[in-house]
């Protein structure tokens, strides 16, 4: 049974300084997946970014570092804290997954081109069967090194394209839920 890995769904991600984003339905899709995983008794891991930068909304103890209320972990669900985009780096996540025999991951969360992409790359490189749920992730607009602004949807799609095939399989919410039936 695949592990649902929910990345950085924290209060600070809902604040305007985060920027213009795509996939306004992502939280609803994540909540649907979380409900299905819980109903099936399948494993769920919540990842929380804890910043090392003073003043960051994700600094320890700040309201922005808390999980969004609708996506708050239950006591029996594993929580991983990270300080860099990749949820595997210095977190014990790989060890936790291996110790429980988990080999498949379904990844949702934010942001597609940062923590989701970094985590999915590591998962693929570590040999996990990795799925990224495109409509349960979102990105923010970004300016490239030439000074060209790219809208959030374009950033999101490029990050997914970077992952498809080599590191992960890109799916939607319904396909992710169907993985539980296998």
Could you outline the blueprint of secondary structure elements for this entry?
Blueprint: E1 3-7, H1 26-40, E2 44-49, E3 78-82, H2 93-99, E4 104-110, H3 112-125, E5 129-138, E6 142-143, E7 149-150, H4 152-163, E8 169-171, H5 173-179
Parallel strand pairs: 1-2, 1-4, 2-3, 4-5, 5-8
Antiparallel strand pairs: 6-7
Number of helices: 5
Total count of domains: 1
Q: Strand portion, in percent?
A: 15-25%
Mean pLDDT: 96
Backbone CA Rg: 15 Å
Helix content: 25-40%
Query: Strand order, biggest sheet?
Result: 3-2-1-4-5-8
Tell me the total number of β-strands. 8
Organism: Roseateles saccharophilus
Keywords: Hydrolase
InterPro entries: Isochorismatase-like_dom, Isochorismatase-like_hydrls, Isochorismatase-like_sf
Domain Isochorismatase-like: 3-174
